[in-house]
Design goal:
With about 500 residues, the protein is an alpha/beta fold. It contains 15 helices and 14 strands. It has 2 domains: about 5-215 and about 485-505, no CATH class; about 220-475, Carbon-nitrogen hydrolase (Nitrilase/N-carbamoyl-D-aminoacid amidohydrolase). About 45% of the residues lie in helices and about 15% in strands.
Length: about 500
């Protein structure tokens, strides 16, 4: 009967988001994947794909259903249509876990690992490879990775070594050891040496993580900087209304004037409801004030560049979601990773015009190049990451090594009071820990926060309130192993782990 396994898969997946913000019931990240591993035992690849799809349906149905807010409230689509599109999105994302389940069942059958610790470790490797695949395939959706739930635990110590994928793998190894140990205690044929080996494995895993958590791979600069972050809390429905432009600018400037004594001031993503070329008078004043006060002013803004290949009579423009450093700062950055349906519409020719959601303003943007240089704030260098970009571990690591600190700005107003913004913040914390650099996070309506090099929030503003956050941080120099090597060492290790048993079984008849 497949009814019970199907129900268990769906429920296990639905419980897994409890491991992440705002709930932080971390044991769910250990228990729920292990439940799926048990459910998939002795299943055919087709059965495993179906059961894993149900697991993904539960996982993303409870974990990322906040997209409904964007579609219904800001689309705006009627409730029934928003619910239908959200369900379609969830079912589509769950195909990743279906593929993961099919691949695992195929490998476990070919390798002969159908139970025991080797079976669970193979499951663990395939799971993390599934997370990696989901990061880049079709532009990627790197959300709800197991490792993100491990902040402030010993396993977080693996983050500066191998990044989020090594942390996720350590979570699954922990679950595999615990499950195998429990099975030995239930068995009538207990073997003390195996129990001791499992206990030793658990001790080494947790002890190594805890030891690594205390290692500082980067080093503090000799100066502490003061920073002020502006959270204007502007309603999304007012953002691009022409009559609301002037009140918005006045509101932001009023908040900004409370921060004239800070070394750095940060405004959120698209802080000004103007293009860069239109904002000349405001930016010129800020630039002059910043230079006089030796204050770096960092802000998100839209910019446009004419396509040189377009006719003069009917010019075309590339629109960028950009980040500007002015005053005692310098540089302009264009966002590289765009949000599907928010900043660009896949299959635009077919989807545009169907509903208003597919015709949202600024949903036809261009992406910036991958070789953009660091921006400056006084004598220090930093790299900005706009909204969705902070969830890509290797994108951040590629630029973090030479940076003294990291900045991310966002406008999570799109997701209302859901778990989405808090999950987003949690991923930003992991990026700070992976790279051991302080991270300054400015948002429109929360969560605006200061994150230290260990991924801990040191200061924050309440959500849904206009205000300013005054704080200090210490820039850091140096690189973590993850900075230098990225995710590839871990991915290659996992690829070897899943392929080697199959290869050995194929060429060693005694193992068949």
């Amino acid at each position: 009967m497949m009814l019970l396994p199907a129900l268990l898969s769906l429920v296990s997946g639905a419980l897994l988001p409890a491991a992440f913000a705002p709930f932080d019931f971390k044991f769910a990240a250990v228990a729920c994947p292990m439940a799926l591993a048990l459910i998939l035992r002795h299943k055919t690849p087709r059965q495993a794909a179906w059961l894993s799809w149900l697991f993904g349906l539960g996982l993303f149905g409870t974990g990322v259903s906040w997209v409904f807010v964007s579609i219904h409230v800001h689309g705006p689509a009627p409730v029934w249509l928003a619910a239908f599109l959200t369900a379609l999105f969830v079912m589509g994302i769950a195909l990743f876990t279906a593929l993961q389940g099919w691949f695992f069942a195929t490998l476990s059958g070919q390798s002969g690992f159908t139970q025991g610790l080797r079976y669970l470790l193979l499951f663990s490797a395939v799971w993390v490879l599934g997370e990696w695949f989901r990061t880049w395939f079709l532009s990627g959706f790197p959300w709800l990775f197991l490792g993100h739930s491990m902040l402030k635990t010993p396993l977080a110590g693996f983050a500066p070594i191998g990044g989020i994928y090594l942390v996720s793998f350590s979570v699954l190894v922990l679950g595999s050891l615990l499950l195998t140990l429990a099975a030995h205690f239930r068995s009538s044929d207990r073997q003390p040496q195996k129990v001791l080996a499992l206990l030793l494995g658990l001790t080494l895993l947790i002890g190594t993580g805890q030891t690594l958590y205390g290692v500082d791979w980067t080093h503090p600069e000799n100066r502490e900087l003061s920073v002020g972050l502006v959270q204007p809390n502007i309603p999304q429905e007012d953002k691009w209304v022409p009559d609301q432009q002037l009140p918005q600018i006045r509101k932001i400037l009023s908040l900004h004037r409370q921060l004239t004594d800070q070394d750095i001031v940060i405004w959120p993503e698209t802080a000004l409801p103007l293009f860069l070329a239109q904002a000349g008078p405001v930016l010129d004043e800020l630039d002059q004030q910043g230079k006089a006060d030796r204050q770096a002013i960092l802000l998100g803004i839209l910019s446009a560049e004419r396509d040189a290949a377009s006719p003069v009579e009917t010019p075309r423009y590339h629109i960028y979601n950009s980040f500007l450093a002015t005053g005692n700062g310098e540089g302009l950055y264009h966002k590289q990773r765009l949000v599907p349906f928010g900043e660009y519409v896949p299959f635009a020719s077919a989807l545009r015009g169907l509903i208003q959601f597919f015709d949202l303003p600024m949903s036809d943007m261009a992406s910036g190049g991958s070789q953009q240089t660091l921006l400056t704030a006084g004598a220090y260098h930093f790299m900005p990451f706009i909204c969705y970009e902070i969830v890509y571990p290797d994108l951040v690591a590629a630029h973090a090594s030479e940076a003294d600190f990291l900045v991310t700005v966002s406008n999570d107003t799109w997701f209302g009071a859901s778990a989405g913004p808090l999950q987003h913040l949690q991923m930003a914390q992991m990026r700070a820990l992976e790279n051991q650099k302080p991270l300054l996070r400015g948002t429109n309506n929360g969560v605006t926060a200061i994150i230290n090099y260990q991924g801990e929030i040191t200061d924050r503003l309440p959500q849904f309130e206009a205000g300013v956050l005054r704080s200090t941080f210490t820039p850091r120099t140096g690189s973590t192993p993850f900075n230098l090597n990225g995710s590839w060492p871990v991915i290659l290790m996992l690829l070897l782990q899943v392929s080697l048993p199959v290869i050995l079984r194929k060429y060693n008849p005694s193992q068949r």
